[in-house]
Every structure is written in C-alpha cells, then in structure tokens.
Design goal:
331 residues, five-stranded antiparallel beta sheet, 12 helices, 10 strands, elongated
Length: 331
C-alpha cells in the first residue's frame, strides 16, 4: 500500500488546508489536495526513504496533526487512489483503514454498485435492473454483458475497478509543490560550524527524498528559528524567525548543489553568533526529473559525487535511510 487518503477532522476550512498539507509534504511532494478538508498522498518514495510502510507513516502524520494543529484525521490506505478513497469511508477519526491489493476484491464484493466512485445514478439503475447490484456481481459478470449495458469503455473500466484493479494516480496540484525538512537543536546553538553541519544533513536528506520520487526543485528556502520562538512552531515571517529564498542555477536533486545553495543562504543572513533553535530547508517548484535539463560538466569530482549518490540511494532503498546516514547533527 502506498496511497493515503486523509480527511482532517474537525473539517478544516479551505484556507487552512495548505498549512495542513505541509504535514504530508514533509514525507512526499506527490500530494493532491481535496478541498476543503482532505488530500491524497503517494508515499512510494517515502516508504523507501523512511523504511516504513504507508500505514506506519499514517500514524506519524496523525500524531503530528494533533500535536501541531490540534486536528485529528481519518485515513484510508490502499494500493491506489480509488481503494484509498473507499477505505477512508470506513475509517473513524484517529484510525487508518487499510486495504491491500490481495484483499481488494473481497473488500469491494459486498458493497452496492453505487458506492464505486464514478458510478452515477443512471448507471447504477441500469446495472441493478439486471441484478448487478453489488460490486462482487459486477466483477463476476462477463465483460461482454457489461459492455452491452453501459458501453465498451465504461464496461471495461467498471469491471476492472469492481475487481480491485486501481489504475489511478495521485496528481499533484498547485497547493502542494514543495518538500521540507527541519533540523532542531537540543539547546540554543551559537556555533556556525554546527549550523553548517545541520544544513549539510538537511540538504542531503532533501536530495535523497527528491531523487526517491524522481523530482527536482527550482528554488530553496532557508528558515532560521531563533531561541525565543516556541519549539513546536516555525514561521517564515515576522517575530523571531528569518527566511530567505534563492532560485537554483538549474533545477536539481543533487545533494551537493542543494548544500552549496543552503550555505549561500545561511551566509547571506549574517547571523554572527545568533542563538538558533532550529534550521529548516524547503525545496520548492518541484517538477519531474525527466523534464529537467542538466548542464554538462567536465569536473571529475562532481561526476564522482553523483555516482556515489546513486550508490547511496540504492543502499537506502534496500536497507532504509540509516544505511547511509546524511551529515549528522551532534547533540
């Protein structure tokens, strides 16, 4: 299972939804907002990176939603968006209802045909007139019969869905095109070297997570949270936090390039022994890596680093994120 369908409760206003989606964006940039109070999230890359399945990650999301926003959520999990949406209907607040690929047909069998998303009143009425009133009966019906009743294409798609075949995808929309990570310190930190090590760790994590979902970013934002801001919140404007953004020379998921820009952003703030509580990096303007161009370079060091990244990414995918630890933050 890689898809989550999340409904925040009590229902969030549409203006509050982008903030709540930030919870999901900490795990994956492949998020589709379902205004006013829900979202779909594809956690395939997050499962590989965090070495946890979608249900385990759902528990983390629920805890963070309660702790940071005072909002509970009901979550459906499935191998595709359709099954995740239908699983959500059976999820109570504070729980996750999961449907795996092997149990999809059984999960759907007893449900009325009208329960399937996309089946309207007219289609349901026609099917029920011929005794096809449950999804189990639709799944068992001959394809030619369904196509005669509702049309060639609709009949084929209806039968596939009733059998648990979910070909849908999560389509990121304008609300969700970023990925973020934060490095808090255990105490107010004045040492610039420790700040830079935290930035190195954050940039390496962002790069690995972007590569896990085949994305590149166009801009990078650094937010510095100072000692007197509450530990559980981070703000990009006003008060005792500072944010600065820079457009990258070219869209990238290369950790070394992200680290270089993160250092430039840090130096531009001129902190000079500021008491820092946390540093956060956000990669924005995400686009598919296959659509990005890469400027050729004859630097053997850069090519070597990229090859090392590829090996490290394969190790993470196989053994989990701790197989290759990013630049660590000392306690």
């Amino acid at each position: 299972m890689t898809i989550l369908c999340v409904r925040f409760q009590p229902p969030a206003s549409e203006t509050a939804l982008p903030g709540l989606l930030g919870l999901l964006e900490e795990f994956t940039p492949v998020v589709e907002a379902l205004p006013p109070d829900g979202a779909l999230a594809d956690l395939a890359g997050a499962e590989r990176y965090f070495a946890r399945d979608a249900v385990q990650l759902a528990s983390v999301i629920r805890v963070r939603a309660l702790a940071l926003h005072g909002v509970d959520c009901a979550i459906g999990a499935g191998p595709g968006p359709l099954l995740a949406r239908m699983a959500l209907r059976e999820a109570r607040p504070g729980t996750t209802r999961a449907v795996d690929a092997d149990g999809a047909a059984e999960f759907l069998a007893g449900k009325p045909v009208a329960a399937l998303p996309g089946v309207g009143t007219a289609t349901a009425r026609v099917l029920c007139e011929y005794g096809l009133d449950t999804l189990g009966r639709v799944a068992a019906a001959p394809l030619s019969t369904l196509q005669r009743l509702v049309g060639t294409r609709t009949g084929r798609e209806l039968r596939e869905k009733a059998q648990g075949v979910d070909r849908g995808r999560v389509v990121p929309n304008g609300v969700s095109r970023s990925l973020a990570t934060e490095r808090p310190f255990s105490r107010d930190e004045l040492d610039p070297d420790r700040h830079r090590r935290a930035l190195l760790s954050a940039a390496e994590e962002l790069g690995a997570r972007l590569r896990a979902v085949d994305k590149v970013c166009r801009t990078l934002t650094l937010t510095v949270r100072y000692a007197d801001l509450p530990h559980s919140r981070i703000s990009s404007s006003g008060g005792t936090s500072t944010a600065t953004t820079r457009t990258l020379p070219e869209p990238t998921a290369h950790s070394a390039a992200l680290t270089k820009v993160a250092y430039v952003l840090y130096e531009s703030l001129g902190l000079q022994r500021a008491r820092v509580r946390a540093l956060a990096l956000r990669a924005e303007g995400l686009t598919p890596a296959e659509h990005a161009s890469h400027q050729l370079t004859f630097d053997p060091v850069d090519e070597k680093v990229r090859r090392i990244e590829e090996v490290a990414d394969r190790a993470r995918a196989k053994f989990g994120p701790r197989a290759v630890m990013p630049g660590s933050l000392a306690a």
